[in-house]
Amino acid sequence: MTQEPLRIVFLGSDAIALPLLGWLAGEGAAQARLVAVFTQPDRPSGRGQRVHQNPIKEWAIERGLPVFQPERLGADAVAGVSGLEADVALVVAYGHILGNAFITAPRLGTWNLHASLLPKYRGASPIQTAVASGESETGMTFMRIVPELDAGPVADVERVEIGPLDTAAEVEAKLAAASVPLVARALSKLAADALACAPQEHSLATFCRRLAKEDGALDFGSPAAVLAARINGLFPWPGCSVEIHGQQVRLGLADAIEDVRTGSGPEFCTAVQNSGPDPIPGTVLGADAEGLLVAAGAGVLRLRRLQRPGGRMLSAAEFLRGFPVNRGTLLPSRPMTALLR
Length: 341
Hints:
The chain is of the alpha/beta class. The chain has helices spanning 18-25, 55-62, 75-83, 100-103, 126-132, 168-191, 224-233, 266-273, 316-322; strands spanning 6-12, 32-38, 43-45, 50-52, 67-68, 88-92, 110-114, 122-123, 137-144, 154-161, 207-208, 240-244, 247-257, 284-287, 292-295, 300-307, 314-315.
């Protein structure tokens, strides 16, 4: 006997879910049928503060799906899900806290994809915080939603590597793609009533918060590896910046040379030799073929991509051709905020 596709109500507001939605509407249609989409209300954004539809709403409207945008998921939303005869509610970066009445409305429950390897990095910025913390691996976790934030039992995970030059943007794209095989496995087991969950080890939980522009400050007294991870983890939002020649220059990519003896190339060797025995953290040492070299509390920070106000993000070589930064320039430090709470 052929299994009827599960009736899915989707809740999400962020473009990270688009690859998964594309799969559900295409190859995954044999397993699941999208019957409605819940997403955040339209809000003003950008310099002109014009009201825009988010990418999830645009995707759903293009395919003729019912779209609901409540300010809160109250009794009307619960009744709506019940009326749709939903088997499963699937949540990806929705932005609302779900009450127990909504969680229990679908026949097979409400499930969430969280962009970390739980119990690490519960909360609002798991991708950015994992990269900024210097992790070499993260993943998507498929978990049953409970009233406590990101604390539900875990059914499955899909792991992804964080490469040494990955920013949060690259890692987000990897996680978006990883959602597809993860959900494919989970829905198959849900339909067969064979999806097992394991409780999280709550004592190991870490919590990340919503990020703000102030989080882009850099203290060059920190080790170069810490600074590089911070720059990469906070790109593109909120982005790290540093004042150079009176302008706030945005940083798009960096890496660390933790032991100057491992640096290569004549430009790097010359820069380090000419820097003196103990340069002040934040001192520009020069540039090599890959980036602008800056003394840190330990090691050398290499700034690979930079952007002037009103300009484009450029490779260091392109940037320095139009915006020279002399050896010996001291980049000011600012206190760095903690990303975990």
